[in-house]
Recover the amino acids of this structure.
């Protein structure tokens, strides 16, 4: 099927009243809960911290992560996993990628049978170099056709403010992707579908690394030419990598690739862009981590992505230089956007 395809009309209208759960009450988990609720679903959020769950229930706010945003009243919350997961029809997971496995072990016996499990995460597990859908499949011991991933140009605060955007829902099973897309579509958020899980997931991971590079040169003080060079050549790195692992080239030119890359690189709302900018301003790795209120997945994914690239012989000079800046062996001002795996510019560019 073509990538980023619109929903088949046979998928039906939005399922008002669908009971869904979101694991994770950070900015993206809370925002996606709002997307689901505004599409007609009854949503329950698991918040690790009881005080956040209490605020969501009592004030319909999550001021720690989405200040100034009023949440729909059909969103409930609890710090008790059993309460959140009881009787749900779909489960969305939005926790830091490096803690996914331990969280899955907590819910393994609580997840209702046969429901779709949806990853909202964009990372690679550091120790195993597995994508998030692979970790879910392994830990929950379920068929991959029950798993979907959501990716696209999705900056949480903009969506929470109901600024129009789109995403792609990908699953090996088109039926699963369509079921999830129907529930996660509303008047300001449209979900497309595809079956290229590898390309969709890696697009969401790799753009974070390029966004860190953009942040670095922005922090140094370089201008738009430098940033445009990194975005353009970064897309080449992303595509080479994804295709080497079985992803489709066209996915990387769609919402999960180019779309997400542009949004993440260009916005100060991006955590990865912010982390890179701090590095470019001279803060070291430990200082950047200490200043970040939430996880910058790009920093956590640099090492496993480069290991995966080396395993299939894909050169990623921009990402490699980000790793050197993180290690303190390359000055931010020396990050060279002109480096590429091929000195020839592709035809048509």
């Amino acid at each position: 099927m073509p990538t980023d395809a619109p929903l088949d009309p046979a998928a039906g209208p939005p399922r008002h009243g669908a009971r869904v759960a979101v694991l994770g009450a950070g900015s993206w988990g809370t925002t996606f809960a709002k997307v689901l609720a505004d599409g007609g679903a009854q949503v329950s959020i698991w918040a690790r911290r009881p005080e956040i769950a209490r605020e969501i229930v009592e004030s319909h706010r999550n001021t720690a992560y989405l200040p100034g945003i009023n949440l729909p009243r059909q969103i409930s919350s609890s710090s008790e996993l059993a309460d959140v997961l009881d009787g749900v029809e779909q489960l969305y997971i939005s926790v830091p990628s490096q803690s996914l496995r331990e969280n899955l072990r907590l819910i393994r016996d609580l997840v209702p049978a046969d429901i779709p499990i949806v990853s909202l995460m964009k990372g690679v597990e550091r120790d195993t170099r597995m994508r998030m859908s692979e970790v879910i499949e392994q830990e929950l011991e379920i068929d991959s056709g029950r798993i979907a991933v959501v990716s696209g140009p999705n900056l949480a605060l903009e969506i929470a403010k109901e600024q129009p955007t789109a995403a792609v829902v990908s699953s090996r099973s088109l039926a699963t992707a369509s079921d999830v897309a129907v529930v996660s579509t509303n008047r300001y958020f449209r979900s497309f579908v595809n079956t290229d899980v590898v390309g969709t997931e890696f697009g969401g991971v790799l753009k974070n690394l390029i966004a860190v590079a953009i942040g670095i040169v922005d922090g140094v003080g370089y201008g738009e030419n430098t940033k445009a060079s990194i975005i353009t050549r970064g897309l080449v790195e992303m595509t080479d990598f994804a295709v080497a692992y079985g992803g489709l080239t066209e996915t990387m030119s769609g919402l999960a690739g180019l779309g997400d890359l542009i949004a993440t690189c260009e916005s100060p709302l991006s955590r990865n862009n912010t982390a890179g900018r701090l590095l470019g301003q001279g803060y070291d790795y430990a200082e950047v981590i200490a200043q970040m209120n939430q996880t910058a997945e790009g920093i956590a994914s640099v090492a496993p992505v480069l290991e995966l690239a080396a395993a299939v012989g894909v050169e990623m000079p921009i990402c490699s230089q980000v790793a050197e800046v993180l290690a303190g062996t390359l000055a931010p001002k020396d990050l060279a956007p002109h480096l590429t795996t091929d000195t020839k510019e592709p035809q048509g560019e």
Q: What stands out?
A: Residues 197-220 form the longest helix (24 residues). The longest strand covers residues 165-171. Residues 30 and 331 are 37 Å apart (CA to CA).
